[in-house]
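Lab notes, practical 5.
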Amino acid sequence: MSTRVRAIGAVAAIVLLTGGCAAGIHPGAAAVVGKTEISVGDVDKTSQAVSTALGQNYNTAAALSDLVNNAVLGQVQENKSVPVTPAETAEAARSAVGGDEDTYQKFQTNTVARDFLNSVATSQVVVVKLAGGTVKDLQDQAKLQQGLAAAKDASKDITVSIAPRFGQWTDGKLDTTISGSLSVESDQTAAKRKAAADAAQQAQPQG
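Output from the prediction step:
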C-alpha cells in the first residue's frame, strides 16, 4: 500500500465510539449515519473515482469505512459549530495526499473524488480544531489525540447502521469478517477494479 493510499485512509484511523447495527437499513443503502444515508451507489462511485485518482485500488470496504467516518465527523462539526474554511480544506486535502500536487489535481478532475477528498480533509481539520489547534497542526500527534478524544465524546450519540452484507461497524471500524463477504458489486465493476489494481501493481517501483 502506498503512502498516498495510507494518507487518504487516515480518517479511518479515527476510531469513534459509535454504535453499530442494521436497524433502519433498506435495500440500496450501505449505511445510515445518524441522519445521513450512504447508498451502495455512493460506495461504488467513491471506490472507482478514488482508485482512478490514486492509480491504485481503493476497495469498497475502505470507501465505506471512510464515508462513514466522514459522515460522523460532519455531524460532529455541525453539532459543535466547528468552522472550516475552503482554504483550510484545500490545505488539508493536499496534506492528505502527501503533498503530491499531481495526485491532488487528479482528484480535482472528478467531482466524486474531489468531494470525497474535501470531506476527508475537512474531517481532519475538525479533529485538530476540537483540540484547539489549526490546519497547521495536522501532523501534531498530541493535538490529534486530543481531538480524537473530543470527537469520540461528541459522537457518542450518533448511531451507525451498516447493511449486513457489508459487515458490521465495530469500535469505529468496518468489520467485514462478520458478513463474510463484500461481493455485492457487479461483475463489470469487479473486472474494472481488478484491472486498475493490476495496472497499479505493475506501476509500483521495484524495491
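Observations recorded by the TA: Helices lie at 3-8, 40-54, 60-80, 86-96, 101-108, 111-130, 141-154, 187-203. The beta strands are 19-21, 29-33, 36-39, 159-162, 168-170, 173-175.
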